[in-house]
Automatic annotation (TrEMBL):
One of its GO terms (molecular function) is glycosyltransferase activity. Residues 21-113 form the Glycosyltransferase subfamily 4-like N-terminal domain. SUPFAM superfamilies: UDP-Glycosyltransferase/glycogen phosphorylase. The keyword Transferase applies. It comes from Algibacter lectus. This is Glycosyltransferase. The keyword Transferase applies. It holds the Pfam family Glyco_transf_4. Keywords: Transferase.
Amino acid sequence: MSWYFYRKQLQKYINTVTVKENINLVEAPDWTGITAFMRLKVPLVIRFHGSDAYFCKLDKRRQKFKNFVFEKKALKSASAYISPTTFAGEETAKIFGLNRKKIKTIHNGLQLDQFNNETPESYEDKTLLYIGTIIRKKGGSRIG
């Protein structure tokens, strides 16, 4: 039950800060359903970036039941969702039975037009710009 009290502690903190700082929206990740069992005073937007259920499905691995329940509970309480790709949004909607109309795809989570290389001939050899998390399940172990 420590997970429940931890979430309630986070809920209290988030609600206090949102009121004090006049914050009108909270964004949270989907992974492990951190917002499950929270009642926030402002709308919650959940960002899809690889829930446990999503990657277990892609990897054909069995998921812990508790993780699925937490993720589904958190997702069902959200007002809207942000997905980095259409595929991730559609797959997550299928897994959890979500309303697809509440999903907005924002590719890469940044505006690519703000990264215009005006001197493409000028570059550093063996340099890579990677926007994301370097982890095994996203191919991070292959960088070398």
